[in-house]
Amino acid sequence: MSLWTAADAAAATGGRTQGDWVASGVSIDTRTIRPGDLFVALRDIRDGHEFVAQALEKGASAALVSRIPEGVPDNAPLLIVPEVLPALEDLGRAGRARMTGKVIAITGSVGKTSTKDMARAALAGQGRIHAAEASYNNHWGVPLTLARMPCDSDFAIIEIGMNQPGEIAPLARMARPHVAMITTVAAAHLEAFGAIEGIAHEKGAIFEGLEAIGTAIIPEELSVTPILRDHADAAGAILVGFGRDGMARLIRAQAEGGMLSCRAKVSGEIVDFTLQTTGTHFALNAVGVLAALAAAGADVKEAARHLGDWQPPKGRGAVEELGGIRLIDDAFNANPTSLAAGLAMLAGLQGGRRVVILGDMLELGPDEIALHRAVAGDPAMEAIDMVHAAGPLMRHLYDALPEEKRGAWAKTSAELAAKAAELVAPGDIVLVKGSKSSKVSAVVDALRQSGQGPAPQQKG
């Protein structure tokens, strides 16, 4: 398959080509590069130019560079540009410009990646689908996804994220979606934004990239929903709200044997679907997905049927049977909203003890201590039997808990992981959750390696 010819890539970037090459893909990583890929020598922790020779040895058709690297022949197949990242952005814009299908963009404080994956699964059988890999949603992930997009794609699903103010609008304008969905707005990255209202304004900026007469899919029932509505109105978008109320509405979500049986009303139609999870927050996002796909022209009932094929990704709420316990691995993301959803999911499960293993929630700004302590008052905590925690911030939650709910506490996730087998017992239902940088995933790894042992009686 031809994705980029040397001439097309040169025209898109304004670069100078060496050789008459054809690329079948685009890669930024020599560890996963495939023969025929165009290797993009981005500068990150290390300069990608150091890996050009290796990329060519592995079969790359050419490399996008700002200079001829050492060890690379002068006549090597290259696309030479002044700066690599802006050239990748140009390649992404050109990839978007030549695609005639429908583009759906997704952002939100929680659930971007799982919602993107839901949409991809739901669209099965409705044409050629292109979607972002993993969590490729930043300043290089979005243009890379667009540059990889086949021009005959019927649907593209682009994930857009942010860490600082002003990041979403340029990426949205690059993606030019026909439909843009916000999963939710929560207290994440508060260090950069100061208040949840600032986060809402940044998320709402996704609508600035909408194509003419585009559709904005927003969550209802949030304190900041009016802010999102204002951004959609400013963009001249068709507005569809989703949630337990709104134009797209979750009518029922009932847990049945580790699954959710759901009913919703979308575009005036009643649709039934099943999800391979018990988290109702996933069901709400599924309703948003169906609304987005309907706006993009997909068959809603067919999409609902394929939602059952979606599985939560590793570290994002996937449920697995591990020895004698049921493990919910949600160790790669945490803020007060997503933690509340995880606790509610655990509280709704039937079985043995409900055990939570928590790592710090990071980037919450000056109220971080109060936000951790407040988790002790979450209504779902009533149904939680034991809480183990790691990190200085989670110490504040630990100290606020009733004594009978306190399990072990450790300064680091590594220390907690070292005694993972002591934290759980056969029959337990275990939720592991924390910000990715808290490294509480080490506890998940330890549980998988060791199985599970006796229930702990000691306190930390």
Structural class: alpha/beta
Low-confidence stretches are: 452-460
For the report, how would you describe the main beta sheet? 9 strands, mixed
User: Which range does the strand content fall in?
Assistant: 15-25%
Q: Can you tell me the CATH architecture of the largest domain? A: 3-Layer(aba) Sandwich
Order of strands, main sheet, comes to 9-10-8-11-12-13-14-15-16
Short description:
With 460 residues, the chain is of the alpha/beta class. It contains 16 helices and 22 strands.
Folded structure, characterized:
By secondary structure, the chain is α/β, with parallel strands linked by helices. It folds into three domains: about 5-85, Udp-n-acetylmuramoylalanyl-d-glutamate--2,6- Diaminopimelate Ligase, Chain: A, domain 1, CATH 3.40.1390; about 100-310, 3-Layer(aba) Sandwich (UDP-N-acetylmuramoyl-L-alanine:D-glutamate ligase); about 320-450, Mur ligase, C-terminal domain (Protein-Tyrosine Phosphatase, Chain A). About 30% of the residues lie in helices and about 25% in strands. It has 16 helices and 22 strands. The protein has a nine-stranded mixed β-sheet, sandwiched between helices. Strand 20 (about 385-390), helix 14 (about 395-400) and strand 21 form a beta-alpha-beta unit. Helix 4 (about 110-120) crosses helix 10 (about 280-295) and helix 8 runs parallel beside helix 9 (about 225-235). The radius of gyration is 23 Å and the shape is globular. It starts with a strand and ends in a 10-residue tail after the last helix.
